[in-house]
Design brief:
Layout (H helix, E strand, L loop, with lengths): L35 H11 L12 E10 L18 E10 L14 E9 L2 E8 L12 H8 L10 H9 L5 H7 L14 E2 L4 E4 L5 E10 L8 H10 L3 H11 L5 E10 L25 E10 L4 H6 L12 E2 L4 H17 L74 H9 L2 H15 L5 H14 L1 H10 L9
Antiparallel strand pairs: 1-2, 1-9, 2-3, 3-4, 5-7, 6-7, 6-10, 7-8, 8-9
Length: about 475
Amino acid sequence: MINDKKNLTTSWGAPVGDNQNSITAGSRGPTLIQDVHLLEKLAHFNRERVPERVVHAKGAGAHGYFEVTNDLTKYTKADFLSEVGKRTPMFVRFSTVAGENGSSDTVRDPRGFALKFYTEEGNYDLVGNNTPVFFIRDAIKFPDFIHTQKRHPQTHLKNPDAVWDFWSLSPESLHQVTILMSDRGIPATFRHMHGFGSHTFKWTNAEGDGVWIKYHFKTEQGIQNLAPELAAKIAGENPDYHTEDLFNAIEKGDFPAWKMYVQIMPLEDADTYRFDPFDVTKVWSQKDYPLIEVGRMVLDRNPENYFAEVEQATFSPGTLVPGIDVSPDKMLQGRLFAYHDAARYRVGANHQALPINRPKNEVNNHQRDGQMRFDNNGGGSVYYEPNSYGGPAESAENKQAAFPVQGIADSVSYDHNDHYTQPGDLYRLQSEEERARLVKNYVDSMAPVTKEEIKLRQIAHLYKADPEFGKRVAQGLGLQVPQQV
């Protein structure tokens, strides 16, 4: 008979003789500090939780692949998009935005839609949401916005006053808030929702010519949403409902899939389009810039270990590859710093070297040391550049495409400030049944607000988007539309 028993060891590999009893001075004496196994267990246990993400704390992930289905090489030189049929391995993380790690999956909240493509030219991260727009359009407002979604510093309770005070004082949020209060505010599962890059990005081809683009991921499972009453019931019975659904679907071979499309805008159109194409609170009309199919994303493998893969996965819109550049989107520009910096704080300076984040191709740079450096730290190779010893050097052909800039350095807003046309169009596009549910969701969410002026301010925004919209929400709250609207 083969004895395949494995000896329990300490973290440094020494065998453990007793894992049931700590070392004490006699049967009733105090515990001895020389019990190094006990000390190591307790010390490691105290550190088993990295800080949760400031936003998107609660999430689920899966592995899969992306397959190109359409030749768009005339627009981008990105290698993973270079030929029809090419497959690139991926890791995907879905999440809620505002809640803590233990919150319910079925709350009314946007869903994070974070994708990591392990390309042959390095990793490419597309870090979006299940909505095509966002609440704000300048990163300087992001910490304040997220503070309103968190708990009151005194009561430690969620604070509707803060939420609606901020939104009503930030009219650019109206488009996203209206989507949030619609049926799509509570997806039935992660599998039954679309995904979006949300921001405008720039694709550059091998000749150096560029276009502005927006990403769209259309679920092949179809859109399904939860009624608020059912969502609340599930939240009480199974707060991990979406996490469980994704894992079980993949486990039984029901692999979820999305088709990826892009909208493509010529560079010169950015100066004349009726909305600022870099304002993340606005969409581009698909009549003006139709969807063009790019490929298909399939999730077909569950993580082996949640912490190692889902929790330690880090994403940033600044994780780019040749052929994909950024735009002047003020919100995107702030995220380029904030996401990588959050990963360094939360996981560590060497987070990119972890297996889940490590690119498939060889990494050659001069970054050294830092906490938890677990590879050979560059060995004895040259550790600076430029150098005369054949160390890694730049490749001019992979420079980002140049673009013109002009203007006076100042704190300025976007030139376009029409925050009402698109939310109004969204309201009018919905059926009467959908409008009724939208109004009810607004009313239910705003009802707990204690300050009447906050409610009236938000009603005024809704009225400017569509008079009927504002009147119906006002009526539901037992208020009148302000006369000055």
